[in-house]
């Protein structure tokens, strides 16, 4: 039987009920992972902001200790 003789229904994607069930299972299994990924991403953003604040503070402290003025190589970001 050639591809022209195969009934149209067998060439389609999985039937709607099967597709819906697979999507529901996928959503259920991945929902916790997405939540964890978002939580991890936000924690990384918060940590990066804290490091930036710490770096700026350290630059200001070094500038104050070395007497560096506005024209120095250490510039606030």
**Low-confidence runs:** none
Q: Report the sheet with the most strands, covering strand number, pairing sense and barrel closure.
A: none
Count of helical stretches: 2
User: What percent of the residues sit in helical stretches (DSSP H or I)?
Assistant: over 70%
**Radius of gyration, in angstroms, nearest whole number:** 29 Å
Strand content range = under 5%
Intertermini distance: 71 Å
Order of helices and strands: HH
- Per DSSP E runs of 2 or more residues, the count of β-strands stands at 0
Derived structural class? mainly alpha
Taken from the alpha-carbon principal axes, the silhouette is rod-shaped
Rounded average pLDDT: 79
What would you note in describing this structure?
It is built from two helices and no strands. The chain has helices at residues 8-11, 16-66. 71% of the residues lie in helices and 0% in strands. The chain starts with 7 loop residues before the first helix and ends in an 11-residue tail after the last helix. The radius of gyration is 29 Å and the shape is rod-shaped. It has a domain at 14-66.
What characteristics describe this protein?
2 helices; 0% strand; 77 residues; 71% helix; single chain
What is the topological layout?
Elements: H1 8-11, H2 16-66
